[in-house]
Amino acid sequence: MIEAQLNAGVAFLDEKLGTDWVYETQTYDLNLHSPYNCVLGQLFGDFNVGREKLGLNLDDTVRYGFYLPCYDFPYNESEYTERISEEATQDWVDKIEHLKEVRRHTCSTT
Q1: 41 and 35 in contact (C-beta within 8 Å)?
Q2: Sign of dihedral through CA atoms 110, 7, 16, 23?
Q3: Rg (CA), the chain
Q4: What percent of the chain shows pLDDT beyond 70?
Q5: CA angle 88, 105, 96 (to 5 degrees)
Q6: Domain ranges in the chain?
Q7: For residues 92 and 39, is the Cβ–Cβ distance under 8 A?
Q8: Of 6, 65, 95, 106, which one's alpha carbon is 20 to 30 angstroms from that of 31?
Q9: Which residues 6+ apart lie within 8 Å of 107 measured at CB?
Q10: What pTM did the predictor assign?
Q11: CB neighbours of 61 closer than 8 A, spacing ≥ 6?
């Protein structure tokens, strides 16, 4: 996933939900291929519920790294899609874990 998408997604969620949203995610269960375990799914119970509550259209969800357009391909269970999904999920896991550590440290020093 492109770092700019991750950063845009994080900034968007920080603005809309505050910075504590990272503590509401379970990175061991995170899976961008699941409407319930993706970032928005974990925060709102379902990808589409989160998208609607945040006022996002599908293009916005791609821009913020919440949705991968390769799922719309006819062969969405292909090895390519699985690899892209796993890589993007790992990018989100790494970003969220980093944010948890940084934000936890920042809170404990103030």
Answers
A1: yes
A2: negative
A3: 14
A4: 85
A5: 10
A6: 3-108
A7: yes
A8: 106
A9: none
A10: 0.85
A11: 40, 47, 51, 67
